[in-house]
Give the backbone structure.
Amino acid sequence: MKLNLKLIALGMTETKLIFGRQAIIEAIESSKTISKVHIQRDINKHSAQRLLRALDTYKIPYSYVPVQKLNKLTPHNHQGVVATLSEINFHSLEELAESNQKNALFVLLDGITDTRNMGAIIRSAAAANATAVVIPTTGSAQITGETIKTSAGGVFKVPICRVSHLKDALYLLQSYNIQSIVADEKTDKEVFTFDLTKPTAIVMGAEDKGVSAGVRKLCTDIAKLPITGQMDSYNVSVAAGIFLYEAMRQRLQV
């Protein structure tokens, strides 16, 4: 069956859309990397059962949206579902952790919903030669044209891992003796006092909520950045850049 593909402009890139239930199922089963699937809010879940099962099996993020949104994405018969093909290939977190045990430097993003912040963080991660950036499939911005543009191509230079839950990612990284440090101003410990030459995962949270309580509890420690001016916090992408720079600075001195 020929896949229903449509190209649309998205920022500075072109994004492929797939529409139709069978076409999306075939794309999933043929190992196409799908960024997200939009499903009509009042879709008959019984008739879409096979598609929903495939999305859950392959851990592909999806959301229910009004039919008007789907109609804006494509004028064709979408059958209540439209998928966006990812512009990048996602990597296996376990394989990267196993092959980078001595010099691991992961960046985990918890609740970052601004695509430009995500792009800027990925750009810094690429510049610092990070092992990978890890994002959850839900509750987080995904890789879009705007993310790619803001990252200045960084998404193609640092591996991106997508996981169902960051908690699972932390359990995995800890099994490889990789310390996990939450960036948060609610601590007395500054990031400069930590040994970041050790295998490390830096965990960044959303500006409004920070890192979620469940994720925070699983982390090894908490570190902050000093602030001497009249602000009470840094932009999350700026903070991530400083954390990564400090890790890079320490490692260059070893």
Q: What stands out?
A: The CA atoms of residues 83 and 172 lie 29 Å apart. The mean pLDDT is 88. The radius of gyration is 19 Å.
